[in-house]
Amino acid sequence: MQTIKNAIIEILIKGGHLNKKQLEKALELQKERGVPLRKILVEQGIISEEILLSLLSEQLYMPSLHLAKYKFDSAVIGLVPERLARLYSLIPLSRFGSTITVAMSDPLNIFALDDLRTLTGCNIDTVLSSEEEIIRAIKAQYNPESQDMQQVMDEAAQGERDSKKSNIELVKEDEIELSSTLEESEKAPIVKLVELMLNQALKKRASDIHIEPESDCLRIRYRVDGSLHDIFRIPKAKQNAVIARIKIISNLDITENRIPQDGRFKVKFEGKEVDFRVSGLPTTFGQKFVLRALDKGNLSVGLEKLGFSEEPTRVFKEAIAKPFGMLLVTGPTGSGKSTTLYSILNQLNTPEKNIITVEDPVEYQLEGITQVQVKPDIGLDFASGLRSLLRQSPDIIMIGEIRDSETADIAIKAALTGQLVLSTLHTNDAISSVTRLIDMGVEPFLVASSVVMLCAQRLARKICMKCRKPIVIPPDFLKKIGFKGKADFYAAAGCKYCNNTGFYGRVAILEAVLVDDNMREMIIRKEALDKIKEYAVSKGMRTLRDDAFLKVEQELTTLDEAIRITTEE
């Protein structure tokens, strides 16, 4: 009986990928560590996992399959117990009649195949997959929390299984039987399902929960470290009840389905309070809801612990020490601008200071700070709110976003008349903020006089320290991208700790510069942005890409991630 170990040795020696000395060393290491030979060979850099799979597939006349994007069927997964799947490192893929196809890392294990035949009573077809991918798939598919949710949904459906089908009855498209929906939303299975969804999201460190109606189901996705992940799907029949439950806990009108809605609620999780900001949007198949988790614990850590590099931290500290002027933080949605501004406000929040914010919406509710929620439908927009709060004798003002010329004009004048103004803009880099304000109709000399600091921000995913893998990057590529530092490079792998993503948490990448007299003159003269940026770099400004590369040198993120989130310089 040929084993997978013998097959690997035979194939690699035959193909000239492995010599006798390497084999002896690998076998010795395998004996010491008690891990599969293929793992030792890949770790030693003798052969890559991908090439090894390809060679095995060719020699064993067996197809290979990458499981990362494979869509598993929960009914097929249920045919094989988790214990057996983990024991033999296999996962069922599909069933056609009396034949089940399974992905295995060791398709020559006849004991595994015999056990599967006996258990399922079916014939077994095999495809070849890497052990790492199979383990990852087992963790994802045999998720106890997902099983809990499935059980809750089964309970919810149990009462309907015996009901008789009625004749088809035409109703208006958006008509919902409110009394039955309200009653259904208060039932234990629906309440439990929503609680499990929130609990699982917080456990997985999700920043957002997406509840998305589709033609045949209600899709649930979590955003973890900036990336969305499909979690599970709820039957279409339960859609209205689940959405009604979300509306009830968010104090929203459950009778309204045609216009966007905004609400919020609080939960207690592991001894701390977490706020959820709720946003509802009418779509083709029903209202889509996004629940954003807001953890106040992130705000009180101070600038040093937000992950800022030394130079941006110094720039921030110098800027917030000034008695008046404007501090601008720029970047796309979800780049951490609000968290940065709130952390600064928390640091400046003392009894001697009157701090007022105008926001849309108010994300974090902070004690000792006056926060105004923008309501355009009643005429309370950023400009009118800002005009009113200037009569409240503020020391520090935070404007959620400068969106129009009127808001920009009032904010600039407030910064010139003795207030410290903090705000955000949507621009690609720090220096572009100047052009954006001038484009809004603010005179260059007013921009030059009022702005004291410009900052651009991005968030990079931090590599998981428990499963990262060292890799070699060709010097030619490093030269091409302008990487000049010295670093040990790592690639993301994936383990239980990081939910098989290879990343755990995020770190801020910043480009921050203080506006000095020379830069003010350049702004007044309307010099090109490139020249202003060149001057800022000569005075010590670290660009977004430079800061991202610094995080790579500090082994906080991968080179791929640094390139992904920063544009070419």
Give a structural overview.
With 569 residues, the chain is an alpha/beta fold. It has 23 helices and 18 strands. The strands form four sheets. A seven-stranded mixed β-sheet has the order 12-11-13-14-10-15-18, with helices on both faces. Helix 18 runs antiparallel to helix 20 (517-524). The chain is flat. Residues 161-179 have low confidence and may be disordered.
Strand content: 15-25%
Report the total helices.
Answer: 23
Q: What is the gyration radius calculated from CA atoms?
A: 29 Å
End-to-end distance, in Å? 59 Å
Say what oligomer this is: single chain
**Sheet with most strands: strand arrangement:** 12-11-13-14-10-15-18
Question: What is the makeup of the main sheet?
Answer: 7 strands, mixed
The general outline is flat
Secondary-structure class? alpha/beta
Mean pLDDT: 82
- Helix fraction? 25-40%
Tally of DSSP β-strands = 18
Q: List unreliable stretches of 5+ residues.
A: 161-179
